[in-house]
């Protein structure tokens, strides 16, 4: 397993993260446990800002909170001076509860409800990324009702396909997101936005997908959207346009084979493409916004599990089960995502067997890792799965009424609990039994 950030194997032969021995984390907080390397998250956020500083462009880095959103995470992002991208009333509420500066919040989503829009308008968020005509009209009307003007970016589907899993490729024209260019919808949206009371069209947005390892797709999208930006300013009276948001999607290393680019390389490529396009079109440089999610938290997260049962089918396969699985990490089941693991309590031992790591959910597809090379695994061992910081906790479920794990931030030899472990009482907390179904119980 590749060790990221502050992760290392200590003198006791244990995995240590943020200066804290993983076996101590397990004794204190139990398993499954999501462990986040706070320094690595901070360093990555700083690396994004440092990379932009060298470009000379005005920029904003907005953390895409869908990757991992909790109160503590919002505080961390605020401390590092990044903006925040939210896609639901729940994420917005979390950010506001954490006292995240509302003017640095962007609101995404292809079906924002009237309630969510009102909530965001009342909070005075920085901008809405408007996805469709229904939303444009609704937002305008609600803003007028509240006596405010909302800053708006239009989300475009630039027709760029990237090499990633189909479910996370989002820039295609045949996608539920955004206004497509070829049908004329995007042009119509600009014309409509400049006419709509209650909104001010300040920018254009595109997002081509996630876990992207190359810069070609970004360059293509930038070229397409910049031409459209020029038309919007010069032909369709969008004179307030200043923001050019190219979305997120920067890839990370999940396995030894993954070879993402350095942050610096992604940003340089984006900045160069923006400058080239805007120079060619004779336009003033815009403020460039990016929305990284996975790349800020992905490698910083490690999930610790306890090994339980195993099943050897001689000559076929050995299954080793852990006390978590698709309920805390649905990505292998959803996207055939591949992860790496190590035994956190026996980290110096050499691999001696190939085993497949099964989750505990009642699904044959609940397999976390196929064919992991590990030392002879025994019940009670601590299995660490790396790079689980993005889209794990945030996509976790209570399937099989499994309680969600706790989350800790570790740094400088300290561990802070940032999300409590769910109890079974938490799992049933919102259930209601109608009185008529209690009859048998009450009469006993
Ligand atoms: C609009 C938008 N911005 C940003 C992101 C974050 O992407 P990533 O986590 O790949 O950086 C996503 C998710 O793919 C997205 O849909
Ligand atoms: N949830 C996806 C990526 C994010 C898609 C958001 N637009 C994943 O786990 O890879």
UniProtKB/TrEMBL annotation:
<dbReference type="InterPro" id="IPR002986">
    <property type="entry name" value="DAP_deCOOHase_LysA"/>
</dbReference>
<dbReference type="InterPro" id="IPR022657">
    <property type="entry name" value="De-COase2_CS"/>
</dbReference>
<comment type="subunit">
    <text>Homodimer.</text>
</comment>
<feature type="binding site">
    <location>
        <position position="335"/>
    </location>
    <ligand>
        <name>substrate</name>
    </ligand>
</feature>
<protein>
    <recommendedName>
        <fullName>Diaminopimelate decarboxylase</fullName>
        <ecNumber>4.1.1.20</ecNumber>
    </recommendedName>
</protein>
<feature type="binding site">
    <location>
        <position position="363"/>
    </location>
    <ligand>
        <name>substrate</name>
    </ligand>
</feature>
<dbReference type="GO" id="GO:0030170">
    <property type="term" value="F:pyridoxal phosphate binding"/>
</dbReference>
<feature type="modified residue" description="N6-(pyridoxal phosphate)lysine">
    <location>
        <position position="66"/>
    </location>
</feature>
<feature type="binding site">
    <location>
        <begin position="291"/>
        <end position="294"/>
    </location>
    <ligand>
        <name>pyridoxal 5'-phosphate</name>
    </ligand>
</feature>
<dbReference type="InterPro" id="IPR029066">
    <property type="entry name" value="PLP-binding_barrel"/>
</dbReference>
<dbReference type="InterPro" id="IPR000183">
    <property type="entry name" value="Orn/DAP/Arg_de-COase"/>
</dbReference>
<feature type="binding site">
    <location>
        <position position="391"/>
    </location>
    <ligand>
        <name>pyridoxal 5'-phosphate</name>
    </ligand>
</feature>
<comment type="function">
    <text>Specifically catalyzes the decarboxylation of meso-diaminopimelate (meso-DAP) to L-lysine.</text>
</comment>
<feature type="binding site">
    <location>
        <position position="294"/>
    </location>
    <ligand>
        <name>substrate</name>
    </ligand>
</feature>
<keyword id="KW-0456">Lyase</keyword>
<dbReference type="Pfam" id="PF02784">
    <property type="entry name" value="Orn_Arg_deC_N"/>
</dbReference>
<dbReference type="GO" id="GO:0008836">
    <property type="term" value="F:diaminopimelate decarboxylase activity"/>
</dbReference>
<comment type="similarity">
    <text>Belongs to the Orn/Lys/Arg decarboxylase class-II family. LysA subfamily.</text>
</comment>
<dbReference type="InterPro" id="IPR022644">
    <property type="entry name" value="De-COase2_N"/>
</dbReference>
<feature type="binding site">
    <location>
        <position position="249"/>
    </location>
    <ligand>
        <name>pyridoxal 5'-phosphate</name>
    </ligand>
</feature>
<feature type="domain" description="Orn/DAP/Arg decarboxylase 2 N-terminal">
    <location>
        <begin position="49"/>
        <end position="297"/>
    </location>
</feature>
<feature type="active site" description="Proton donor">
    <location>
        <position position="362"/>
    </location>
</feature>
<dbReference type="InterPro" id="IPR009006">
    <property type="entry name" value="Ala_racemase/Decarboxylase_C"/>
</dbReference>
<feature type="binding site">
    <location>
        <position position="331"/>
    </location>
    <ligand>
        <name>substrate</name>
    </ligand>
</feature>
<keyword id="KW-0663">Pyridoxal phosphate</keyword>
<dbReference type="GO" id="GO:0009089">
    <property type="term" value="P:lysine biosynthetic process via diaminopimelate"/>
</dbReference>
<keyword id="KW-0028">Amino-acid biosynthesis</keyword>
<keyword id="KW-0210">Decarboxylase</keyword>
<feature type="binding site">
    <location>
        <position position="391"/>
    </location>
    <ligand>
        <name>substrate</name>
    </ligand>
</feature>
<keyword id="KW-0457">Lysine biosynthesis</keyword>
<comment type="pathway">
    <text>Amino-acid biosynthesis; L-lysine biosynthesis via DAP pathway; L-lysine from DL-2,6-diaminopimelate: step 1/1.</text>
</comment>
